[in-house]
Design a protein that fits this description.
Layout lengths: L6 E12 L6 E12 L3 E5 L6 H8 L7 E6 L2 E2 L5 H11 E5 L10 H10 L5 H17 L15 H13 L5 E5 L7 H18 L2 E5 L3 H5 L3 E6 L2 E7 L1
Parallel strand pairs: 3-8, 3-9, 6-7, 7-8
Antiparallel strand pairs: 1-2, 1-4, 4-5, 9-10
Helix pairs in contact: 3-4, 3-5, 4-5, 5-6
């Protein structure tokens, strides 16, 4: 039996319904699974199957219409938006398909954003900047610290996003189609970095992907269709 202390994520009978002019639309129904710290999980399925909705609920970016999500020991359902944001900042990292870098900030400044949200000052702030510089060097961008997103290729922007995701040393990393906007060669580089950093940091990994190769790198694959989990198995 899995010990409660080892659980990093628990999803219990979660559903999500949105109001529409044609009536309620259920995009996710009765999803249940749990993740032990250090596991890697791919969420796969056709477009509209509920993958991104489930990812957002797991990360506390949205709230379920029914059911419960517990992230790093915190029941998200009873928290305010500010409290959920604090849990995310302290616990999670994010990598998105469209990078979501701030255009007016340099690569280094973008990586520092999650740490600055913690209000670091003095020696702690200097240590944070050293960590950000080291991570950018680790992903091959040590010479691009002062470049703005518009001056970077798509692959370079995604590597900045990876450095930003890992700079807080998150317990769990959520990725939504992290290679979806990249060409094959660049996607392979980013994929390798995701799993290298995942192994080095011992981070739990949850990713949404249409890429069979990327999904095959994960220890578990959750298959969704029509808003329901069809299968939960290993590779």
């Amino acid at each position: 039996m899995t010990s409660l202390a080892a659980l990093i994520l628990q999803v219990e009978n979660v559903s999500r319904t949105y109001p529409t002019t044609a009536g309620p639309l259920t995009v996710l129904q009765g999803a249940s699974f749990s993740l032990v710290a250090g596991e890697s999980l791919a969420l796969v399925g056709p477009s509209g199957s509920g993958k991104t909705t489930l990812l957002g609920l797991c990360a506390g970016l949205d709230q379920p219409s029914a059911g419960a999500v517990t992230l790093a020991g915190r029941a998200l359902g009873g928290l305010s938006e500010d409290e959920r944001a604090r849990v995310r900042n302290e616990t999670t990292g994010f990598v998105f398909q469209n990078f979501q870098l701030i255009p007016s900030l340099t690569a280094l400044e973008n990586v520092l954003v999650p740490l600055e949200l913690r209000g670091l000052r003095g020696a702690a702030a200097r240590a944070a900047e050293d960590k950000a510089r080291a991570l950018l060097a680790r992903v091959g961008l040590g010479g691009r610290l002062g470049h703005y997103p518009v001056q970077l290729s798509g692959g370079e922007q995604q590597r900045v996003a990876l450095a930003r995701a890992f700079v807080t040393e998150p317990r769990i990393l959520f990725c939504d189609e992290p290679t979806g906007n990249l060409d094959g060669a660049t996607a392979a580089v980013v994929t390798e970095l995701i799993f290298e950093l995942n192994r080095e940091k011992g981070t739990t990994l949850v990713l949404v992907t249409h890429d069979a190769e990327l999904a095959s790198r994960c220890g578990r694959v959750l298959r969704l269709r029509g808003g329901e989990i069809l299968a939960d198995g290993g590779n």
